[in-house]
Specification:
Elements (H helix, E strand, L loop, with lengths): L17 H15 L6 H8 L3 H14 L10 H15 L4 E9 L20 E4 L8 E6 L6 H4 L3 H15 L2 H15 L14 H15 L1
Parallel strand pairs: 2-3
Antiparallel strand pairs: 1-2, 1-3
Length: 214
């Protein structure tokens, strides 16, 4: 008996990329101050191109990180920072380097963790004598342009907490998860009450959605 095999085309799979973590954190930060943004400005703030910022927004929308009008869904961002990203985008450690302090040593987390004098700080390696560089153990950032995105203190704090969960001990990871909750959620426990996006942000997000649906 002759057996014929037929190939069934597989649907295109889309997953989040590490730069999407930077974009989601930046949009969250901009929402706190009700600041307007454009694709070009968003890309510049996190160190990626305008086109990649557009693609990132598409992925964030598709994954549920962004809701209607481009607002950040805080529950989804919390789950990404606490559970998803540390597992998928795990950290690689290197040798001694100079770079931007991260994890429990990041300036935005000052006083939130106990720092043993015998522990070298974790750093994102920076070229040459970059401003703010410190000597420590090299840790690959979740995306190479993380030091650019970290110019925003809110984004820096979230990325540093992510690194605590990526490389820290059990107690540090647990505390970092709680601090992510505190940063993202309102005091009344309502995670969905977020700042309204700018008119331009809403229009851009709708435009991106319409382009994908065509």
């Amino acid at each position: 008996m002759k057996c014929e095999l037929s190939w069934v085309p597989m649907p295109k799979l889309t997953s989040l990329h590490p730069q999407d973590v930077l974009v989601a954190c930046k949009i969250f930060s901009l929402g706190l101050g009700r600041q307007e943004w454009t694709f070009a400005g968003l890309g510049r703030e996190v160190g990626i191109s305008t086109g990649e910022a557009h693609n990132s927004l598409e992925r964030c929308r598709g994954s549920g990180l962004l809701g209607a009008g481009g607002t950040v869904v805080r529950r989804a961002l919390r789950d990404l920072l606490v559970v998803g990203a540390p597992q998928i985008f795990y950290a690689s450690r290197g040798g001694i380097s100079r770079g931007l302090p991260t994890s429990v040593w990041a300036p935005p987390l000052g006083g939130m963790f106990e720092l043993g004098a015998e522990r070298l700080p974790a750093v994102w390696p920076l070229p040459g004598e970059a401003e703010g560089a410190a000597r420590g153990e090299a840790v690959d950032p979740i995306y190479p342009s993380a030091p650019v995105a970290a110019r925003d203190p809110v984004v820096y704090e979230l990325l540093a907490l992510l690194d605590v969960i990526r490389i820290g001990g059990t107690s540090e990871r647990k505390r970092a998860a709680g601090l992510v909750e505190r940063r993202l959620f309102d005091r009344d426990g309502n995670p969905e009450r977020v700042s309204k996006p700018s008119r331009e942000a809403t229009l851009l997000t709708k435009s991106a959605g319409s382009a994908r649906e065509k």
